[in-house]
Specification:
The chain is of the alpha+beta class. About 35% of the residues lie in helices and about 30% in strands. It has a seven-stranded antiparallel beta sheet, covered by helices on one side. Helix 1 packs across helix 3. About 25% of the residues are buried.
């Protein structure tokens, strides 16, 4: 059975709207940062930290990450709406792990979700249902 995680843009988040280009831009920034870390360390950290290619679905509502080695298959990412912990309908990024996803996909999806939620100052509902708050709460 597929699993989903939600990165929700709640009050206090950096942005209040999402597009596919914005989400892809966040992933490209992650790739750039890991590449720079790899340069400093002297090895291909970017390939280990982001072992995917960003593939278009032909649909304007989502895209998927396709694994570049046998340890990673794919995951689906797209914008949507979800209910926050406070009970409001808010924009979100939904990350879906299909039935064929590997343990490596789940580990990378958790890592990418935490990165995106932190960079957007968002509320993250993980695959196991737990919530992590990266947004300022008062």
């Amino acid at each position: 059975m597929s699993q989903s995680a939600y990165i929700k843009l709640v009050k206090g988040s950096e942005d209040q709207e999402l597009t596919l280009e914005h989400i892809q831009g966040t992933l490209l920034r992650y790739q750039e940062q890991t590449a720079k870390t790899g340069e400093q360390l002297g090895w291909d950290y970017a390939g280990a930290a982001f072992p995917y290619t960003i593939e278009s679905s032909g649909d304007e509502r989502w895209f998927y990450l396709k694994g570049i080695n046998v340890h990673y298959k794919h995951m689906i990412i797209g914008p949507g709406m979800a209910q926050s912990v406070a009970g409001e309908q808010v924009p979100c990024i939904q990350v879906v792990l299909p039935d064929e996803a590997t343990h490596g996909d789940k580990a990378k999806a958790n890592e990418l979700c935490r990165y995106m939620a932190k960079s957007l100052a968002a509320e993250l509902t993980m695959f196991n249902g737990r919530t992590i708050y990266y947004n300022p709460r008062k």
